[in-house]
Design brief:
CATH superfamily of the largest domain: Head domain of nucleotide exchange factor GrpE
Helix content: 55-70%
Order of helices and strands: HHHHEEEEEE
Number of strands: 6
Strand content: 15-25%
CATH architecture of the largest domain: Roll
Number of domains: 2
Strand order of the largest sheet: 1-4-5
Length: about 180
């Protein structure tokens, strides 16, 4: 059914072209000029289609790169929620070890230290690292979280870290918990 419509359209188009040729009584020169203008438009159309294709191809390549980069980032930080949930437990473990050291029970301390080391090594293998903060380091608002300011014991500690209250951690290159510090005023 559609082929009948197509044939009718072709016949209508052919008759229109013949009518145009009959109306234009200027001869072969005009016909040759029409074909040259049609060729240039065909070349322009071809060039435009090539340009569209190249742009579409480049856009697709950018999409592939972007999604693969996002996927890699997702794999790197997939365990972020678990790591964040484990951080308070690690803090409690460190406080417990400090209290066991005061009790002077060497066997209990040794067993707890082995468990702590194993936990820390496992988390380090998964990409978790401690952000090292020492007393006297310069305060950096992008890395540290200041919880309070106290008068500095000496002039050289003004604007510097006096004490680290809570450790900070990184997962890969991303900081998942900022170290909480006290700075000198």
């Amino acid at each position: 059914m559609s082929t009948k419509k197509d044939k009718k359209e072709e016949e209508v188009n052919n008759s229109e072209v013949e009518n145009q040729k009959e109306v234009n009584q200027e001869g072969k020169e005009e016909v040759s000029s029409e074909t040259s203008s049609e060729e240039t438009t065909e070349e322009e159309l071809l060039q435009a289609e090539k340009d569209k294709f190249l742009r579409l191809f480049a856009e697709f390549e950018n999409y592939k790169k972007r999604t693969s980069k996002e996927r890699i980032e997702l794999f790197k930080t997939a365990s972020q929620e678990l790591m964040t949930a484990l951080l308070p437990i690690m803090d409690d473990f460190d406080r417990g070890l400090a209290e066991i050291k005061k009790a002077k029970d060497k066997e209990l301390l040794k067993g707890m230290q082995l468990i702590n080391d194993k936990l820390n090594n496992t988390l380090t293998q998964k990409g978790l690292t401690v952000i090292e903060v020492n007393a006297g380091d310069d305060f950096d608002a992008e890395i540290h979280e200041a919880i309070t300011q106290i008068p500095s014991p000496s002039e050289d500690l003004k604007g510097k870290v006096i004490d680290c209250v809570e450790k900070g951690y990184k997962l890969g290159d991303k900081i998942i918990r900022f170290p909480k510090v006290v700075i000198g005023q």
